[in-house]
Amino acid sequence: MASQQRGRADMETSSGRGGMGRRKGPTDISLLQNYIHLRYVDLSENKLRDLSPLGSLTHLLWLKSCLTCHIASFATNRIRATEGIPIPRLGSLNLKGNEIQMISGLDPGKLTNLHTVELRGNKLETTTGLHLPKLKNLYLAQNFITHLEGLEELVQLTTLHLRDNRLVTLDGFSKSMKCLQYLNLRGNGILNLQEMAKLQVLPMLRALVLMDNPCSDESEYRMEALVLLPRLERLDKDFFEEDERAEAEETRQRRRDEEITGPPTPHLEPSLLTSPFSLFPSGNGGICPRGSD
C-alpha cells in the first residue's frame, strides 16, 4: 500500500503539483533530488540550464507521457551541456531547441540502452563527444557544424541527419560505420561532386540527401552520385532507375579502362603523323621544316 501511494505521489509531483509543471517555466530542478523514486517526469519547454539533479533519480523510466517507452524530453529549454543524464534505462533522448555548444558527459557505460539522440536546433560546431556505440539514430540538423569528428565509434548507427549545417567537405566518415543506411546532408555547402567519393567507406548507405548544396546544381550530379556510390538506391527524393544504373556501370568501366591504358590518344591525320615537317608556317605560307625559321 505504501509503495502504491508513493507511486501516485511521484506522478502527481512530476505533472506539476510540486512546481515542475510546464506553466511555471522552471529554471532550476534541484528539488527533484529529494524524489529519488520518481519514474515519470516532463521537463520540456522550460528554461532549464542544468540537468545534473537527474542523476539522483535512479528509478526514472520516462520523462514525458508514454508509459511503455523509455524516453527523455528536454526540448525547447536553455540547456547548454549534455552532462547529468545517467539514466540507465533511457532509450531516446530529446534535447532539440536548446543552447548546447558541445556534446559531453554521455557515458556509454551508463546509457547502455540509448538508441536515439535528438539534438537539432542547438549551437553545435562539431560532432565530437558522441561515444555511444549502441546509438542507431542521430539528429543534428540546424546546428553550426563545420566538421565531423568522432563518428568512428558509432558502429551501429543507421540514420544520421545533418541538414542545414555548415559542412563544405565530407571528411570524417569511417569504415567502422558499417550500419549507416540513411544520410541527410541537405542545405550544407558541399561544392565538389567528388566529395561523395568519401562516402564509399559506408557499405550499407542506401539513401543520400544532398539537395540544396552547391554541388547539386551540377549537370552530372545525379549520375556522378551513382557512379561513385553504386549501392545507392535513392538520391534526394528519387529512386534510381535501371537505365541510370546501366549508364553508371558503363561510365565506371570506361574509367577503369582509362586507369589501365591511359586516356585515348587524340586523332591526327596520317599525313601529319608521317611528315618530316612541323606545323610551323613558312614565310611563303607553306610548311617549313622544324627550326628553319
UniProtKB/TrEMBL annotation:
It is found in: Cytoplasm, Cytoskeleton, Flagellum axoneme. Residues 1-26, 240-293 are annotated as: Disordered. SUPFAM superfamilies: Outer arm dynein light chain 1. Keywords: Cell projection, Cilium, Coiled coil, Cytoplasm, Cytoskeleton, Flagellum, Leucine-rich repeat, Repeat. GO terms for cellular component: 9+2 motile cilium; cytoplasm. InterPro entries: Leu-rich_rpt (IPR001611), LRR_dom_sf (IPR032675). It holds the Pfam family LRR_9. Gene3D superfamilies: Ribonuclease Inhibitor (3.80.10.10). Residues 268-282 have a biased composition (Low complexity). Residues 248-259 have a biased composition (Basic and acidic residues). Its main location: cytoplasm. Residues 283-293 have a biased composition (Gly residues). One of its GO terms (biological process) is radial spoke assembly. SMART domains: LRR_SD22. Essential for sperm motility and male fertility. Plays an important role in the proper assembly of the third radial spoke (RS3) head and the bridge structure between RS2 and RS3 in the sperm flagella. This is Leucine-rich repeat-containing protein 23. The lineage of its organism: Eukaryota, Metazoa, Chordata, Craniata, Vertebrata. The gene is LRRC23.
